Amino acid sequence: MNGIDCCRDRLPDLGSGYWETLPSQPPSSRAPYATSNFDPQTMSVMSSSALALAALAVHILRYVELAGFVWAPLDTVLLMQRRRMIWTEMSASLDAAVAAGIDLNHNAYMLGKNITRACNALLRFLLIHGWTAGPLLLEFAAKLAAPLCRGSLTAAQVAAETGAKEGPLAIVLRTCSALGYLDFDPSAGTYSAVQGSELDELLRCLGPDSEASKALSRIYTEACPPFKLPSEQATVCLDAWRQHRPSWKNSKSKVLAILMDGMVLAPLLTSITYFARWDEQGLDLGKDKALERLDFSKLDASSQVLLGEIFEELGVGSITAQGTLSVSSKGSLAIQRVYSYYVPTSYSPLLARFRQVLYEEPGWGFTEDMDEDEGEIHVERTLNVVGSGAQHQTLFKDLMRHVHEVFAGENFEAQPEFVVDTGCGDGHLLQHIYEHVKNHTPRGKVLDKHPLTMVGVDFNEKSRIATACNLGKHAKLARLSTMVSGSLLYVSFCFYRPSGIMAALKRKKVDPNKSLHVRSFLDHDRPYIAPKNQLEEGSAVAAFAKAQMADFVHLNKEGEPIPATELFASLVEHMARWGDALEGSFGLCMLEVMQLDVPTTKRFMNDCVSFHFDIVQCLSRQYMISAVAFAMGGAMAGLFPTDFKSVQNYPEQGKYCRMMNQHLVRRPYKIRLAELADLPTLEKLEAKAWAQNLCAAGDVLRKRLETSPTSNLVCELNGEVVAVLYMQRVSTLDAVESEKFMQISDSHAPGANILPFHSIKMT
Predict the structure, then answer these.
(1) Among 58, 190, 275, 605, whose CB has the most other CB atoms within 10 angstroms?
(2) Where is the AprA-like MT2-like domain (predicted)?
């Protein structure tokens, strides 16, 4: 038998629908079974590498499946089939989203209780999509569309013709592709205009001669949220709505009309809801019911009437004669959804200067030699922190599933003594973890004998102070302390230098072997460090990186585009640095956000934040990649989930992966893509794993690697390849049934949605 056969009882239990038993003896026309040359005792010892390969394949393909793939091992006892989704797909494309207009009550639907827990409700995001994309669309209509209407061009060619800087320009072009104004050919790297009424309306409404476009431009430069009502900023927004909304409301493009509504309403709604509950410093005033009766009595009568019309169209409520907003029962929940606008609108300083970034200073806000604590100019940090906190609380609860497993038993000596949060912010995650351990685990009953020390690590002194204040509230009961503060940690060995963090922790008597590490949404926000080792051009891993990030755009500090191969190599080295730091510890419980490709973004435009988040995060030098690439990057650095079944993706029952929640640990092996240079070793594995008459010749193995270079994995132990997993795409399950073992590669169908496992072999 081959490796996966002998280990089938130990493969991950992924629930009903994943595995199906095939007949124990295959028809003669199918690829024959192999018999192992290893005795059972040897196999039980050596199967861990094969299991790692199988489990990683399941882990990675879990995200591939979200894009519509199915997969199956060829000619083994097991057949992996497509998971039976509870989730029923609902159309969330732009065209399907506009039917309800801007009514916030209709602009939300749920995909199941798990999604509700994670996101409260999956709401439709057209308004905030419109505001975030606004400056990019204004520049596209003003100058960038014209050359693309004449033919297909690369971003570099458009830059040369228009004078725009290639980095931010590429983000504009990607945005317009997601909205359907451009087509992108990933193989050629070219963009072309999609001629038709949608593009015509965009150019008419947002062209440089349009009075509406001038009014909308003023909103970005003069009305950065949050602002109070009444104020000059509010007047700019209300005047734009009063004077120009009729010109786009009846546009032939219903999508564009709502996007333009968002350019006005997003900053207005952000400001109204923010100051109803928080002050300028971000202090929560504790007014949980503040949104139920908002007071606009200080506004002039005409502005009150206009706001009343807006709120009625939004389905929120109506303004009384006294100038207060009477919120309907449905409207109360609807207006709370505006909290999700805070993070994207916090980047208003960056979007306000987008023309300058596009044509003059692509590095604006990131290249200056500024104080890290005081020098941020591209983001309204207080609004950003408030918005992030509002979104993360429920996700923190989900992260407790992993933390709970670590502290669930009663062998307290074998549990962590320290919890280390790198990028601790205001300390809420550490506080959440402590309260969970104290109230929901056996360890919580013996904290007097087995204390748990919470460690906050952050380059920002204000964050360290905030952490100390938040945790200090519990100090007498929990012996909580912020061990790392002041001068001990500073930027020179911040997040991207974990060895420095570990050294500082050791100086404060924090034992790395008794530490559990946690962090949330930090890896994508790391400073970019160019990789020391570039991916070899033409290699399988280079092809993988290009395929996974074919339409992604990432910028360095200067605003120049970072090639996909360099970004992926940088991620692997980042993971490797953290892998070294985590060795011997209890691992890392982490939440992280992923980026969606353009086709997936278009398909789920209105039930996912990806479109608008990807714009501001890519502009602000944040480095999200696909879930598949993130999983592979960790595997190449030896970082794997403690339990593949426990990896949680968001949405849990959706067809894409926007976020991941997992507990990673350092393993003694690494998994990477098989390369042609591995061929001599793979031939030796073939000889050990199969009877002589069943061994595939070297040219057969070479053809497997060349035919489908991004779907074959090898496992390395101490730098030596000890196992291999061969996979490829086929168009139908019938093709799997009719394949012959030595001619498997002949059935490969690039882009097909079935991915068979051929076999696993090990030393």
Answers:
(1) 605
(2) 376-660
